[in-house]
Amino acid sequence: MNKHSFTESYDTCPALLTEGAIVERLRHEYRISLDEQIVHAGLIYDEQHKQQLAAIYSQYLDIAESSRLPLLLMTPTRRANKERIAASVFRDKNILADNVAFLSELRDRYTAPVYIGGLTGCRGDAYSNRKYFSIEEAFSYHLPTLLDFKESGVDYLFAGIMPELTEATGMAKAMETTGLPYIISFMIGRNGRLMDGTFIHEAIEAIDKQTSRPPVCYMANCVHPDVLFEALSHPMNDTELVRTRFNGIQANASSLSPEELNGCSCLQSSTAAELSDRLMTLLWDFPLKICGGCCGTDGSHLKEFADILSRRAG
């Protein structure tokens, strides 16, 4: 049982670890065919696949346990919103609550502080700048999923690789309605902008102003440390607001642009030593509090990241 809440750990701990890649490891290490609608959220209903999924999460839990860093886990549900669940073969299952219970059971085996986040994402392609919603429409679309997460007992909410400001704003307004702490994580290019052209500073400023309970922080995921370094170094983002409010990365192991990654048929990666070196360069100028991995990473990468964070935490 965690001694401190998610918000207390975020406020008091100098560094927090989050998970590495999940879905890409299932594809490339285990050769699992994933569901067209909800991707890997239904794997918990097949015993063999459930054990494979548990093996990946357990590897990350082992690293957090040995490093004594707080770990932010996320449900494997970025694509499992209410609309997609209803269109899937799992429509009669309680997908969100069952995945929270799955991670809770794994967490109970460890003594390190572990927080379970309800992971959701944009309606469309995270690599696209297509606008699906007004702020009000995004609020109405995402709120039922988020309320289900609250009911299931998650510690926090996480909106992953949000490419466009309008939907991210509606998502944030829906998340604040739940009363849970939450994080908005963007898809960001080298030019310092979201996929819709909005600078990081502009996006943070807009969402903070339009919410009465703003996100705990902002992050980027599915981005290489070198790409994020360039993005944060852009004059439009080199601001006190960004340095204060932007506080995490889930690092992609490839330095390709979002557009190049979206059109790539093979998994791009780099060694744990190479990626951790680039992460250290990023953290030297931008000491982000939350670090983890995304596509192309595994336990070896996360172990290196944990070592970096542990040294920084002292």
SSE layout and pairing:
Blueprint: H1 6-12, E1 16-18, H2 23-28, H3 47-67, E2 71-74, H4 82-86, H5 95-107, E3 114-121, H6 135-152, E4 156-162, H7 165-178, E5 182-186, H8 200-210, E6 217-223, H9 225-233, H10 240-245, E7 246-251, H11 258-262, H12 272-285, E8 290-293, H13 299-313
Parallel strand pairs: 1-2, 1-8, 2-3, 3-4, 4-5, 5-6, 6-7, 7-8
Helix pairs in contact: 3-13, 5-6, 6-7, 7-8, 9-12, 12-13
Question: What would CATH call the class?
Answer: Alpha Beta
Series of H and E elements: HEHHEHHEHEHEHEHHEHHEH
Number of helices: 13
Instruction: Report, as a whole number of angstroms, the end-to-end distance.
Output: 24 Å
Q: Regions with pLDDT < 50 over 5+ consecutive residues?
A: none
At CATH level 3, the topology is: TIM Barrel
Kindly report the name of the CATH homologous superfamily.
Homocysteine-binding-like domain
The order of strands across the largest sheet is 1-2-3-4-5-6-7-8
Shape assignment = globular
Largest sheet: 8 strands, parallel, barrel
Domain Hcy-binding: 4-309
Organism: Parabacteroides faecis
Binding site for Zn(2+): 222, 294-295
Pfam family, one: S-methyl_trans
Can you characterise this structure?
This is S-methylmethionine-dependent homocysteine/selenocysteine methylase. Zn(2+) binds at residues 222, 294-295. Pfam families: S-methyl_trans. By secondary structure, the chain is α/β, with parallel strands linked by helices. It has a single domain, classed as Homocysteine-binding-like domain (TIM Barrel, Alpha-Beta Barrel), CATH 3.20.20.330. The protein is 46% helix and 14% strand. It has 13 helices and eight strands. Strands 1-2-3-4-5-6-7-8 form an eight-stranded parallel barrel, surrounded by seven helices. Strand 4 (156-162), helix 7 and strand 5 form a beta-alpha-beta unit. The longest helix has 21 residues, at 47-67. The chain starts with 5 loop residues before the first helix and ends with a helix.
